[in-house]
Amino acid sequence: MQEYTHQLELRGRFRLVAVTHEPVYAPGDVVGHAVIVDDGERLTDLMSLADARRYLEELVREEGVEPGLENEVNLRRKAKKYLLIAIITLATLLLGFVLSGYLTLLLLGLDTKLLTWNTYYQYFHAIGQPQVAPFVGKIKWAGYLGFGLPLLVLAIVGLVVLLKKDKRSLHGDARFATGADLAKHGMFKKSGQSIVVGSHGGKLVRLDGQQFVILAAPTRSGKGVGVVIPNLLEYGESLVVLDIKQENFDLTSGWRASQGQEIYLFNPFAEDRRTHRWNPLSYVSDDPAFRVSDLMSIGAMLYPDGSEDQKFWISQARNAFIAFTLYLFENWDDERSSGFPGGQGTPTLGAVYRLSSGDGSDLKKFLKSLSERPFLSSNARSAFANMLSQADETFASILGTFKEPLNPWINPVLDKATSTNDFLLTDVRKKKMTIYIGIQPNKLAESRLIINLFFSQLINLNTKELPKSNPDLKYQCLLLMDEFTSIGKVEIIASAVSYMAGYNVRLLPIIQSMSQLDATYGREVSRTIITNHALQILYAPREQQDANDYSDMLGYTTIRKKNVTHAREKTHSFTEERRALMLPQELKAMGPDKEVFLYEGIPHPVKCDKIRYYKDRYFTSRLLPKVDVPMLDV
């Protein structure tokens, strides 16, 4: 059925628009329903004309402010409040003088027609005169009553106003936030630590500070052009980004380099061999007292906890990892102490893989010979003894479990890419730098562990020292993790998400849906992760359950419905009904250009525009040629 719209009232940027199904030629003829329009976007659903007018008045009174003018409005409101207080005070004083003068004349038995506004002042001024002395008591009592009664009434009225409770709707008052709400919370302000989350009224909406942001967006819904690339072209401090397909590096590395950032691309499976290098074992302490603890942390990342029936094998795999890595480190110590540092070199995961493969002879005998080297510590000997004491079949299964996550290191490119360091993970809060983790989609499965290890070690190393304890830690580091669940469960995120912000490490994970996060982390842990993200961006969902959940998150509003009954005579009645601010089907039909986000600092959800960086000169002007990356010698 065709709809006809008719603008009835314009109040600032808010418009009251009637909606009918037939043409109307005069505004006075409009009956039925109306909507409020804010900057060309419907702010409400259809409601009765009377309700729409009331809601418009409320918006104009409370929120009718252009973004960015909130300080001016607050000043105007304060000025009005102080002016009102001054008027009430003057009126109370004037009433007190008049009433006191009237009571003075009445108590003295004089004609009250002689009353003027300053009668009481004249009598009170004459109290010191001898001829007035017999009447002083009556004059004072007239003043007490004359001023006391207005003040008492004023106090009662003020108390009633203070104690009066706001009338609440039966089913809720959910509504979308306006530009004034966003401006009030500083979400149009720019800083080096701002995360871009959307666009409202033609202005970029940003979240400053240390709070986390999470984006739930199905595939091919514009998350790259709307969140990932805009933040890579905007965020001013250190950033680590999971860059599947390496498009983000190609588009944004040039601009970030031009801003004085050090740029690194870690692509351990690069077919063109162009990658910077990172050696996870280089962060193991040189001090033997701390070395085992550091190796155990890496072992836990490589061999995460599994089901109950896997406990033995995981425990034995971790023990084997300790045995092989301790051997490599202690052999390296021995080489350096004997003046022969050019032998083995810094231990690497590739070296661990090769050592565990043996020299072609009987593996158990080979490892037994290693365990008897004189430079080995008691910890290393114990780890070898634990492994070698197992029956041959069990020993073979332990080695199989141990080598499974290390099998990718048979690839010479990965081996070389993890052989030394071109950057340090401990520097991300000391200087401005950007690390792109570039992975081709066809390598995602085999790279899952190495990426998981990278982010696990990055978080672990940067949650040991608070910025207030070390003045060198002067920058924030944002972890922009596109396809967050593709790297599997990052155990340290599940445990550290509640305190990472205090170390100035910030999260921006991107998932396809809430159910996807549940599947990877489990419902309880995923709820904890989501709870610790202050701002949640929601794109139009595809799964019905997500649409239902999002609808509940946005809240409910109360609508008045007119009921007409026809019996002997026509009667009208009104009922209040609950309606979701956005129904599940409305969320699914939100379209490719809109998004909704919820921010814990604003009591109302925000419906705004998605960013399209390629349509915005602000971003396209920053697209510069990509940075050159050195080629591995493989």
UniProtKB/TrEMBL annotation:
InterPro entries to which the protein is assigned, alphabetical: P-loop_NTPase (IPR027417), T4SS-coupling_protein (IPR051539), TraG/VirD4 (IPR003688)
Compartments where found: Cell membrane
Segments passing through the bilayer: 82-108, 141-163
Record's signal peptide: none
A single GO cellular-component term on record: plasma membrane
The protein's name in its UniProt record: Type IV secretory pathway, VirD4
Keywords linked to the UniProt accession: Cell membrane, Membrane, Transmembrane, Transmembrane helix
Recorded topology in the membrane: Multi-pass membrane protein
Lineage: superkingdom: Eukaryota
Stated family: Belongs to the VirD4/TraG family.
Principal location class: membrane
